[in-house]
């Protein structure tokens, strides 16, 4: 297995900068996800690693092999990169059987028949598709085709596996099962993996680390927990899960904590943060982190319940304090027209500006 280094990777299509100064070190055996909304540059980055598009500048290295050194002429062609790639569409050859689909990359590598057969058996065994070796792709379900595509990417034992939205054509239930299964297989093989998705729940579920991207730039790189609990900016706080963004002003900004005043006059202690030039700021907090309490205390306020929605496992409410409206969430039902709330300081984040769209 090998690590992957992307250093100042920039990819332009004419005037459009699709990816700008991407810096990521993926450790050997790590499962790293590129996550972001459609058009943020995830696939462009992945395809540059595979050699299917041209990077403009920067460095791409896998193990001790430099695949791109910033000079377009020195780029290693895709067939010599030895990287496994699975596309969203699976891209199986329709007129070849499952076994022949897997044989093809081995024939390209000039492997003899008996070794080929052994590798094909091994790869189909890994994805539990051995009984289907002689079927054609159209005789398989979507989930089975996806497994065959994965087996084809693994059959030559690449040190690096690239997955471009591999589960997005499966229905929701199958998708959830497939991601658990995929992660188990990846851990067993210990193959360094880059996974592309726009689905934040999927990214949180499968990844060692997540690189959150927007408009060609990486906004944050961290473990699923880091990204969810300590979003680096209001884009990440909004894109991963959902957050309330409450207008406020800085009263006192210290190194360990800050004191802010919300638009309704409530004073909050929060972790340190940065306000805008005029002292204005937003406090981000997730609906499920706001506590419903009996007594009004520090970091607390009283709010009127404006709207109540039953979502099965939880209730969600829109509540109002002064001019300020925001959402809270509980696992039990609130009947009262008013609620007393507490904003735990550790779950508040202070940003200079509200997220203004991807
Ligand atoms: P994602 O995978 O995150 O949805 P992409 O990597 O496909 O995003 O695209 C990133 C940006 O690059 C988008 O603005 C897209 O329009 C642009 N782009 C992608 N491929 C091309 C291309 N072949 N020519 C011109 N622009 C492209």
Automatic annotation (TrEMBL):
> What protein does this entry describe?
Iron(III) transport system ATP-binding protein
Sorted alphabetically, which SUPFAM superfamilies does this protein's record hold?
MOP-like, P-loop containing nucleoside triphosphate hydrolases
- The species is Cereibacter azotoformans
Q: Which GO terms describe its molecular function?
A: ATP binding; ATP hydrolysis activity; transmembrane transporter activity
Q: Which UniProt keywords apply?
A: ATP-binding, Nucleotide-binding, Transport
Which InterPro entries does UniProt cross-reference here?
AAA+_ATPase (IPR003593), ABC_SmlMolc_Importer (IPR050093), ABC_transporter-like_ATP-bd (IPR003439), ABC_transporter-like_CS (IPR017871), Mo/tungstate-bd_C_term_dom (IPR008995), P-loop_NTPase (IPR027417), Transp-assoc_OB_typ2 (IPR013611)
Q: Which residues form the ABC transporter domain?
A: 4-240
Pfam families given in the database record: ABC_tran, TOBE_2
> What GO biological process terms does the UniProt entry carry, in alphabetical order?
quaternary ammonium group transport
